Amino acid sequence: MVTIKQGQLPTSPQIFPGCPRKQRITIQQRLRPLIGTLGDITLLNGKAFGGTIRSVGSTSFVVSVNKKNVAINYNNLASFRIEVNPQRVNFKAVVRTKTLGILNAINIRIGSNFVEIISVVPENDPDVIFFFRHIIPFNEIIAIACNEIKKCSCRRSSK
Looking at the record's lineage, which domain of life comes first (predicted)? Predict the structure, then answer.
């Protein structure tokens, strides 16, 4: 059993071949540009709520929820999620997490202590699909499997 100290995340989940290489960026560095962004926070205990990132520290980040500031320790975070419009698709991925279950995703970024994906969430209407950017700490992730999407240089036959 691995003991995790306060503010220390596990080194890595199981990452299968086919995924992009890890980048030298921490979850703290990734969240800093998102200060002022409204998103959905899911904690390891399953509690979920909306909030705006106010500040990012080394062991936690602060979100404003109903005009109150709430500090969220990275070790208690299952996911920070915001709605996005993906511009291009480079990878398909399946991410298995402890709290959120299995997420089907496109575009994956693996940092030094987190994974960032864009999940595809279909609605009841077949013409409506939502895309959400998830930033998930390693302590929440069990495994990741990816496939790179190659650009097709196909030519149509002119028959």
Answer: Bacteria
